[in-house]
Amino acid sequence: MTTSLRSLVKRVLPQWALRALRRVPGVSRPPQSVHRFTFPHAPAARVASSFGFSVAAGNLLEQLGEKYAPTRRKHNYLPYYWMHLRDVHLGVRNVLEIGVQSDRSIRMWEEFFPNATIHGIDIDSACRAFEGGRRRIHIGDQGDVPFLERVVRAAGAPFDIVIDDGSHVVEHQLRTFEYLFPQISDHGIYVMEDTGSVVGDYNQVVVNSLKALVDDAMYWPPGFELAKWPQLSRFPAGSSWAARNIIGVAFYRWIVFVMRGHNPEDNPYLVRDP
């Protein structure tokens, strides 16, 4: 990487993305202690299970997908949305979807989240026509942080769910996540659709950046005794915001869910400080 290109990358990408970028093929990086599974004992043919896919057919979101036919249905994203959202959909109050294009998706979310206001972002002013009911439309560029700040203020309350199905530009995906993820409610879920090669990110910059968040979810304070893990009910001063607030990352083909929470306080079985 040339000096000028390196300087440009440092200006554009946040530090956690730069750390992940070092993992990308072709970019110099320190040795990694990663075991690559080869599955030497894998059977030559698949063995049929006595059950089907982990999400049963005919669930509410699948029905709404058939009704409204959003484009994400063709990517088979809806089963994963159902897995992560089925237990919270009645309690969700504020949803943000980046990338509107038509009213198919926001109407689906409006029905799936019956107690929520559904906010949509798009650069096309024609999308204002889709506002109505519990649907609100904001016209602007997701890569423009001041615009995102205005949307957050206009919403009047933190978003419980954020779905990035916008430009699919690497810089936009990274910048939008870095700004909006800290703005969601304390057990909110951030979803990034269409990641990796499907949108031309052949070096998997976004995917590798999100992979780095797994280290935060798995954070262990340096020097803390393993045998005392039940007493680890609070991270020490100096632990990062991400380590304290990212409780899980789920990767599926082309779509990633990042869950916000309280690390390690969400575990009710830990021994609390007196």
Instruction: Say what the CATH topology is.
Output: Rossmann fold
Rough outline: globular
In the CATH hierarchy, what is the class? Alpha Beta
Total domain units: 1
Please give the number of β-strands.
Answer: 7
State the separation between the terminal residues, measured CA to CA.
Answer: 53 Å
For CATH, the homologous superfamily is named as Vaccinia Virus protein VP39
Number of helices: 9
**Oligomer designation:** single chain
Query: What is the residue-mean pLDDT, rounded to a whole number?
Result: 91
Cα gyration radius (Å): 20 Å
**Alpha-beta classification:** alpha/beta
Identify the strand order in the major beta sheet.
3-2-1-4-5-7-6
User: Can you name the CATH architecture?
Assistant: 3-Layer(aba) Sandwich
Which percent band covers the strand fraction? 5-15%
- Helix and strand pattern: HHHHEHEEHEHEHHEE
The largest pleated sheet is described as:
7 strands, mixed
Question: Are there runs of 5+ residues with pLDDT below 50, and where?
Answer: 23-28
Helical amount: 25-40%
